Amino acid sequence: MRKGIRIRGNGKRQCWGGARIWRVPGKAKPPICASPSCSTPLPNLRHLAIIEPLVYLTLRLRLPDALIRLPSGSRLCTRRSSSALAPGSGATIFALSSGQGRCGVAVIRTSGPASGQALRILTAPRDLPPARHASLRLLSDPRSGEPLDRALVLWFPGPKSFTGEDCVEFHVHGGPAVVSGVLQALGSVPGLRPAEAGEFTRRAFAHGKLNLTEVEGLADLIHAETEAQRRQALRQLDGELGHLCRGWAETLTKALAHVEAYIDFGEDDNLEEGVLEQADIEVRALQVALGAHLRDARRGQRLRSGAHVVVTGPPNAGKSSLVNLLSRKPVSIVSPEPGTTRDVLETPVDLAGFPVLLSDTAGLREGVGPVEQEGVRRARESCNFLATVVASVGAQSHSDSSQRLLLVLNKSDLLSTEGPGPGPDMPPHLLLSCVTGEGLDGLLEALREELAAVCGDPSTGPPLLTRARHQHHLQGCLDALGHYKQSKDLALAAEALRVARGHLTRLTGGGGTEEILDIIFRDFCVGK
Length: 528
Known about the structure:
Elements: E1 19-23, E2 49-53, H1 63-66, E3 92-96, E4 103-111, H2 115-122, E5 135-140, E6 147-156, E7 167-174, H3 176-187, E8 192-194, H4 199-206, H5 212-223, H6 227-237, H7 240-265, H8 275-294, H9 299-305, E9 307-312, H10 319-327, E10 345-351, E11 354-360, H11 370-382, E12 388-391, E13 404-409, E14 430-431, H12 440-455, H13 468-486, H14 490-507, H15 514-521
Parallel strand pairs: 3-8, 9-11, 9-12, 12-13, 13-14
Antiparallel strand pairs: 1-2, 3-4, 4-7, 5-6, 6-7, 10-11
C-alpha cells in the first residue's frame, strides 16, 4: 500500500518521505520565483511550507501550486515558455500558395491584422467583399495605380479562417509576370512581409486551429505520392491520432485526480471507497493500449518513407526485366549476357498504392571477376535490411526467417503446356512471364498483401504512428506508468502520472519546445 502524508499549511512539522518542513518567518526576505528566467518577488506568507528533501523526491506541491490565496496587490509569476508563433508574428504575412511556374490560376494568400487593409488598397476604391464569397476585382499597384490583373478575391475574417487570423486569397492568372507584380504590390503595403516556410500552418497551430499531429498530417498530405500515403495523412489530418491521445490524457487526468484526492482527503470519511483501486485499473488498461500501438513495428513510419523491396536471384533469371516491368520504365539494362547488372540499382515506385524503393541486384553466383563479385556482395548486403524480397528460383536460401519472401518463377511462357509442372518439393511460388505479362496481376496482389503487412493498412484499424516523435512520447508514457506501478509512495506515484500525461500532451503539441516546432514546420513550403 502506498503511503503519504499531506503537507499542511499551518507550518506544523511533519515528515513525508524523509523531507524536513518548516514555516517561513513573517519578517523573512520574500522568496523569489523558482523560474530561472524570472525574478518576480513572491509575497510573505506565514503559511507557506518550504520543503528540503533529504533524498531524491518529487513533490506533489510545487511553489506556484501552493500560492492559491494571496494578499491583495500580490503578483504571481506569469512568465511562460516561448510561444508557438515565430518572431515578428504580429506582422501580416503573404506568399504564393499554389505551385511555382506557369498555370491557369495562382493563389496568393495573406494572414494577419493588415489583410483587410491590403485588400482595400489593391482593390481601391472598393470596400471589402462579403465574407467567404468570391468577388471579381481589379487589382492595381498601390504605388503607380497601374492595373495588375482582374482576379477573384476572398475575404476570411478571423477567427473563421485557416490560421484563425484575418486572411485574404487572391486568385490571379498564373503567369509569372502577374504573380510577381501582385507579390511586389503586397510587399509595398505597410505592415506586410513575405511569409516563411510553414508560417501559415504555424499560425493555425498557435491559434488552436490544428494540433501538432494534425499539422504533421497536413505536411504528409502535401507530400503524399501514393494512395496509401494519402489515406494515412488524411486520417491524421482529421485528428484521429490526436483524439486518441487526448482520450488517453483524460484517462490519466482522472487517475491522477483519484490519487491526489486520496493524498488530500484520505483521512476523511467522505472519500469514496476504492479510489486508488480505480486508478490502478485505468492505468493497467492504458498500459495495454499503449503497448499495442508500440508493437506496430513502425509501420506508419515505413508508409511515410517507403518500404524497400529487393529483386534478387541467379543471373539471367529476369530480375532486370521484372524491375522494368514493375517500375514501368527502363531502369535496368536487359541483356542475354549473364552479369549485365553489377551494382544495386534503385528506383522509387508506386506498387499497389504503397511507396516502395525497388532495387535490382547483381545475379548471385560464384567464380566471376572482382567487379561482379562486388556487385554480388552488395546484393547479399541489400537483403539484410529489406522489407520484401522478390526472388527467382535459387535465391530462397539467401533469405533468413525474419525476411518476407515472394518466390517468383519467371519465364513461364517457355513452359510447355503438356510438360510437367513444378515438383511437389517446390515452396509456395508465383508464375510470371515478363515478356507476355501473364501472372503480373497475381504478383501485384501478392505484393500489395505483403506491403500492407509491412506498412499497415491506412484505411482500417487504429491510427498509425507516423513519426519517431510519436514512438518516443508513447514509450515515455509507458515507462512512466511502469514507475507508477512500482511506486510505494503516493507522491512519487502521482508524479509518475504527471510525467506520463506530459508525454501525451507534448505529442499533440502542448508544452512543445520551440526547437521541435521549428523542425516540424520547416518541412512545409512557403505559402502553407
